[in-house]
Fold these 2 entries.
Entry 1:
Amino acid sequence: MTQLSAAQRTPDSGKALYGGKGTRRITVRDITAAKDRGEKWPMLTAYDAMTASVFDEAGIPVMLVGDSAGNCHLGYESTVPVTLDEMTMLSAAVVRGTNRALIVGDLPFGSYQEGPVQALRSATRLVKEAGVGAVKLEGGERSHRQIELLVESGIPVMAHIGLTPQSVNAMGYRVQGRGEEAAQQLLRDAKAVQDAGAFAVVLELVPAELAAEVTRVLHIPTVGIGAGAETDAQVLVWTDMLGLTGGKMPRFVKQYANLRSVMGDAAKAFAEDVVGGTFPQEEHSVH
Ligand SMILES: Nc1nc(=O)c2c([nH]1)NC[C@@H]1CN(c3ccc(C(=O)N[C@@H](CCC(=O)O)C(=O)O)cc3)CN21
Ligand SMILES: CC(C)C(=O)C(=O)O
Ligand SMILES: [Mg+2]
């Protein structure tokens, strides 16, 4: 792989993305280097500064300000209504809450489909106003011109193929790449985004065997969500992973905590203290 010049090499180069104890902010070059070392890495979504600071201190090397903020954070039915103004505000908060993680801002539906120039205008807002280190957009072959112009303009791009939720009205939430023809299309999409210059690609809800093949064929890292164990990285929506989202979870979610019950129980305890007159106590009062 590419050798870094002395000027590009920094004290943190070559450290593990997770557990590497690096102090400067992670760059897309570090992500590329991790695949060359065969290292797997975790990505979580984040939508606010406070949550992002928790994950940053936990050593999560890459955070995605996902347009899943639409359904997880803003109360929409899907990601479709999310606006670029909303993504800019949430992305800026996540950047402010973090010191080390690479922050990737999701381009929302309608902010890049018109063409490369619109994509560049939208991505530029996330880079200049929010300070993200990279952007993500959905689509393989269909988005390759957008990816090319962003990369030419100096904006690193994470691509996203397989299930692309912004197209829910056209494709539903269904497994992608099943069957020979669909598998060949997914491989073409993966190669198209790599050729266009994407530094990584999300594979969402595709058969594990196909995701493994894409991961072997590509030199850029694959980030799986519902794509089996062989991808270079894994991403989960943070509110799913911590049991906060509520409702029926997709099969690919592993729940590492149940914040919904922790928070609900705490809220009830507070309410009972207030109603019963046991909060505040003397130690919570000033005189
Ligand atoms: N909370 C949340 N978690 C996510 O992972 C997520 C979002 N929101 N919003 C944006 C997209 C939409 N995603 C989705 C949405 C639904 C399914 C789903 O219904 N999957 C089912 C059926 C799949 C099938 O068999 O075809 C599953 O059980 O996995 C999967 C991914 C993933 N992303
Ligand atoms: C599920 C991930 C990849 C995403 O695009 C999001 O959270 O918006
Ligand atoms: Mg998204």
Entry 2:
Amino acid sequence: MSDNQEKIAIELIDVHKSFGRQQVLRGINLQVREGTTTVIVGASGQGKSVILKHMLGLIRPDRGQVRVFGSDLTRIGKKQLNKIRTDFGVLFQNAALFDSLTVFDNVALPLRERTDASEAEIRDNVMDKLAMMDLEGAEGKYPAQISGGMRKRVGLARALVLQPRIVFFDEPTTGLDVHKSNEIYRLFHKTQAKLKYTAVIVSHDVPKIFKLADYVALLAEGVIQGCMSPEEFQLSKNPLIRDFVETTMGPIYSSAEEEDSVLYETV
Ligand SMILES: Nc1ncnc2c1ncn2[C@@H]1O[C@H](COP(=O)(O)OP(=O)(O)OP(=O)(O)O)[C@@H](O)[C@H]1O
């Protein structure tokens, strides 16, 4: 956790969103502190990805504010939104690589599209990110020629190439075996320590993801039921958080001593 944790990178205030008659978000209030890792958890279909899309400015709420570094994304023009987005990096479930581009060109794409960097600068930056992801030697390969784990690492390299202030991860380890997931988590940890970005992660990988989290937020019934440290989360008295913890981590016990032992065995 960094020492600038008091600054708020993202703030959602009373965000509502419906699709047709389906009310998905019913008044989301959430603060993401700069330099920290906030993990959003919750059952399937609750609206976690919809929250990420609001933070990215991809969809507008029906009501409420989405503030990023103080600017309300719901009230700014396209130009200003695009400028704010240059501070974002994104790693989605499928890594979303272009099959027709080499690993190098996939990672270089945001630099070519969004900056005036020279080819020499692009080369230095891309090779630096590939080295950080243990992908030296893979730059000339195409996505179809590398493994699923490597594709995710290329996606992470691309997400980091613009030196983003905030990186969004939507299920970053989906489809990977335990070994490859651990590798992604290790690289996440290493790059965040080095580049000091704010991370927002949507994940089902509980309790493992708690090891990386500064804050865990549960989305249930259209609202954030609580956003707190993983330790507090596991001991929360909120019935929906308790339910989530029991479902994903096994039963929790009533005495404080037993609760402590569950906490330290699982985290
Ligand atoms: N563009 C859209 N149009 C209509 N419905 C949508 C749209 N986007 C999301 N939804 C609906 O909103 C609900 C929440 O979807 P979302 O993908 O955010 O859930 P989630 O919590 O991320 O689920 P999972 O953990 O399974 O990925 C779902 O019922 C989904 O069908």
